Amino acid sequence: MTVPLETVLAKAGLKVTAQEFLSLVEDAAKRLTPAQPDPAARFTDNDRTVLTEVGLDLEPLDEDEEDPRARTVAEQAVLRDTALSVSQAAERIGVDSSRIRHRVASHRLIGWKDRGGWRLPAWQFTDADVLPGLETVLAAMPSDQPTLVLANFMTTPQEDLELGDRPVSPREWLMAGGSIRRVAELASAVGTPM
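Structure for DNA-binding protein, as requested:
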């Protein structure tokens, strides 16, 4: 039995038609690096030797292997669909739209320019305000990280942040009144090798 896409989108709380969602997925896929049938072809013989010696697998994906881009495309589509416009963000926190644009320009909110104007990831907001400590956390995050990487960090449970006996996401931690400094310290390492 196949579950209709509309049902999946509704269960996930996404207010988008199946056709709109598929359009978002197609758009996100186009913006990613195209599939490379032979990753080794991008490197010189010397580079291939060095990379292989340090353990990097340069073999093309087998037919039965999942394309690692698929999850990224889906996450990007959801991020875009759930993002707020400047006017929606302004209404949510009770300020003028110009204040939202000023916060984006001063890196106190993150967003990206899209066809219809600025889009702001919803994870940055509560029901009526900006996420507590957001300004401090954003200041600590490396500026070279894409919006999707920051969204994944802020919404994925972290072993270093526990409420009760379970790991929680930085967003959930901050919403519960957890230490802003602790999240900022974790944020400063986003995108760096472990």
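The chain has a mean pLDDT of 85.
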